[in-house]
Amino acid sequence: MNVYVAEFLGTAILVLLGGGVCANVNLKRNLGHGSDWIVIAVGWGLGVSLGAYAVGNISDAHLNPAVTLAFAMDHSLSWSMVPGYIIAQMLGGIVGAILVWLAYLPHWKATKEPEVKLGVFSTAPSIPNYFANFITEIIGTGILTLGLLFIGMNNIADGLNPLIVGALIVAIGVSIGGPTGYAINPARDLGPRIAHTILPIAGKGGSNWGYAIVPVLGPLSGGMIGAMFYRLFYKGIFDTMSIISIAIFIATLILGVMLNKIDKKNKVEKIY
After folding, report:
1. Is residue 105 part of a domain?
2. Based on the number of CB atoms within 10 Å of its own CB, is 266 exposed (0-12), middle (13-18) or buried (19 or more)?
3. pLDDT confidence band for 158 (50 / 70 / 90)
4. What is the mean pLDDT of residues 87-100?
5. Does residue 241 lie within any of the structural domains?
6. pLDDT on residue 115
7. Which CATH number is 230's domain given?
8. Measured between alpha carbons, how far is residue 160 from residues 151, 157, 166, 167 in Å?
9. 39, 141, 168, 239: least surrounded by Cβ within 10 Å?
């Protein structure tokens, strides 16, 4: 198995199990309906762990474009491989979401609310505010990539790393996942959102493409910021990529302010 197939497979496993727990909790007339946020966070954490166990020895199991960018910044991955990794992850996200749809096939019709169905596939903010939502995704993904990089510094017993990474996902989810549903992974949100758009889901509504930039650009910026801090504090490196990371971070926040101002549907809520 080559690294790109591995990233595709690992991401598909991640989204199948993570999206599956969202479906189990939120879709009507199934045994997990009505469970709480902790169940969702644990489901995503285990999904990441199992995806990492499946392909970690082949591709290092990035399963996330933000992680791929962070590892490329740290010279753990050649920049020439980054596009292939990201494409494979996106395709894996789409396929994983399709499998979730198939697994819960009778329950889409049983669930009347279109926004609940969309929530199985992609994230949405509890309080819509582009600037604030970008900040949450940046912080969450920054903690993720910083954590992955410093976990790699430690001599941990073979086979335990994926479990520790899964615990990191759970920790992020239960601590700062509430404001945005903690995408912290463009492939986990954009791939399934595409699947939601193209699948014949019973009674579905729109795919909320107006918000889709937040769980894509926010995690990409956050992933680079996490890598920047790791390289600065652990390796004493501040270079061109560090400056680019800061520039993208500032541009993302400026974009958030601009999107708030041009909101025409009055969905954005003010912070103050």
Report:
1. yes
2. exposed
3. low
4. 98
5. yes
6. 96
7. 1.20.1080.10
8. 11, 6, 10, 11
9. 239
